[in-house]
Write a structure and sequence with these properties.
- This protein is mainly α.
- It has four domains: 32 residues; 149 residues, Ferritin; 161 residues, no CATH class; 83 residues, no CATH class.
- It has 19 helices and four strands.
- A two-stranded antiparallel ribbon has the order 1-2. It has a two-stranded antiparallel sheet with strand order 3-4.
- Strand 3 and strand 4 form a beta hairpin.
- Helix 2 packs across helix 12, helix 6 packs across helix 11 and helix 14 runs antiparallel to helix 16.
- The radius of gyration is 44 Å and the shape is flat.
Length: 490
């Protein structure tokens, strides 16, 4: 009997030890994160607390990457904003080069250089001279008028100014007396409602509260002005107001003459000012009209017209390059960073809901199927970081590009190719210029090139198989742009 008990005890101990070993192996696998397939957990089930611990690590990594991408997005948008300002400045400089002055020879070359023909049938020089003659005639009429001859009378110490000053000294005390009444709100309210007369608004309306309010105000007003009744106050005000109006009517002709003479002087100053700035104003108008025209003209056509003007040709390329930079910044922000930011925000929101759920005490010991847990904590950060790095590198390469004169409109290559120095790592599929270039027509015999289905390294040693579409585009770009990097620059 004792032997049997000892045997059973040894068996129980062995089973317990094996259980401990198995649990230790499972815990070690979970801690190491074997990452088999697409998951992190290799056991069949995962405890809620263990899932939360691993999920918080993934949450931290995703949150850090999300903040980084938002900074990159904001930096790209700010770069675009600065480039838009540079576009307007560069366009203004180009317009100034086309139209440095209103010279007949300069005006004559605008149409051949830009295709803007308005100056041919609306000559700004003739219009300027006509405006000058009109202004000179207006100036002569103003200076010959009687009002201008009397301009000394409205100067300090002049006759009209002196008469007005004397008059103001007389009416000032009267004006102050009238102001005492007109600044009293209660009095003016009663006066406008004809209180104390047969035309009083609330006469006989003893049931209206306003009737009693006006009655009380009338008593207070009479006391304020030291009169026996409100009517005495009203009569005194009416007398003062009549005397003031009478004296102002005497002064009104003097004020009218002063205003007419001063207006004549101001008109003369305006005409002189317009004459002095007439050429500048017309030049600005012509430049603005030309600028509006150049906003929408094809840059390659402009450059073709300016072949004999190297300086203007380079300015056109500079303008076009800056415009392309702004366009690329917008695409990098909206197609490169924004979708990935949205993807990470969605992933982070779902992951945090799971963390909140399994952080509760009742769910910490719940067994979660490993397949579900692996799907929940699947981390896209590494892939998104690698893709976003290419957009960041492309942005820096484009922003730092300054050699606009290298671009040749005779070579059928996008600006992106020149600005990124044809770097295959920066060949991004969602850039409109590259897509348009691809769709412009590629001979089918390029598909025989062995490079199409070869492995290549994009970034950080991560191999990717180049698609047929992408490889055909790159081969054509390399052949088209080869002369740019071999010194064949026009």
């Amino acid at each position: 009997m004792g032997f049997i008990i000892i045997f059973l005890l040894i068996a129980v101990i062995g089973i317990f030890v094996e259980y401990l070993r198995s649990s230790a192996r499972d815990d070690r696998r979970n801690l190491e994160g074997t990452n088999r397939g697409n998951g992190f957990f290799s056991s069949r089930y995962v405890r809620g607390s263990e899932f939360v611990r691993r999920a918080r690590s993934v949450e931290t990594e995703i949150a850090e990457l999300l903040n980084s991408l938002k900074r990159e997005y904001n930096a790209t948008i700010e770069t675009k904003r600065k480039l838009n300002s540079d576009i307007q400045l560069t366009l203004s400089n180009l317009v100034n080069s086309y139209l440095p002055s209103l010279d007949p020879d300069v005006i004559a070359r605008i149409n051949p250089l830009t295709g803007y023909s308005r100056f041919d049938f609306e000559n700004p020089i003739a219009s300027l001279e006509q405006t000058r003659r009109n202004l000179e005639y207006e100036l002569q009429m103003l200076e010959n008028s009687e009002l201008y001859q009397r301009r000394r009378e409205v100067e300090p110490g002049g006759q009209l100014k002196s008469q007005l000053a004397e008059h103001n000294k007389i009416i000032s005390p009267l004006q102050r007396a009238v102001n005492l009444y007109e600044t009293d709100q209660r009095f003016m309210t009663l006066h406008r409602s004809n209180y104390g007369t047969s035309r009083y608004t609330y006469a006989g309306q003893w049931w209206n509260i306003t009737y009693y309010q006006h009655w009380f105000w009338a008593i207070l007003t009479a006391r304020k002005f030291n009169q026996k009744s409100f009517m005495d106050v009203a009569n005194q005000y009416s007398s003062l107001r009549s005397r003031l109006d009478e004296m102002n009517s005497v002064a009104e002709p003097i004020k009218t003459q002063i205003r007419a003479i001063e207006d004549n002087v101001r008109q003369r100053e305006r005409v002189i000012r317009e004459l002095n700035t007439l050429e500048e104003v017309y030049l600005h108008r012509c430049r603005q009209a030309l600028k509006d025209h150049l906003q929408y003209i094809d840059r390659s056509e402009l450059c073709r017209r300016a072949q004999a003007e190297p300086e203007i040709s380079n300015m056109i390329k500079c303008l076009h390059g800056v415009e392309k930079k702004a366009e690329y910044m917008d695409e990098i922000a909206q197609k490169g960073f924004q979708p990935r930011i949205s993807q990470l925000e969605t992933k982070l929101q779902k992951l945090r809901k799971k963390i909140t759920k399994y952080s509760r005490t009742k769910n910490q010991d719940v067994n979660i199927p490993a397949s579900d847990a692996n799907m929940w904590i699947k981390n896209p950060a590494q892939r998104i970081r690698e893709n976003s790095m290419r957009y960041t590198q492309a942005r820096e390469s484009i922003v730092n590009f300054r050699d606009y004169e290298l671009y040749d409109y005779n070579q059928n290559v996008p600006w992106w190719t020149v600005m990124t120095h044809d770097d295959p790592n920066l060949d991004l599929d969602d850039i409109s210029d590259l897509e348009s270039f691809e769709e412009s027509g590629i001979p089918d015999d390029y598909t025989s090139d062995p490079e199409f289905f070869q492995e290549r390294t994009i970034t950080d040693g991560i191999p990717r198989r180049r698609s047929r579409r992408r490889s055909r585009r790159i081969i054509r770009r390399r052949e088209s742009s080869r002369s740019i990097y071999e010194g064949d620059i026009s």
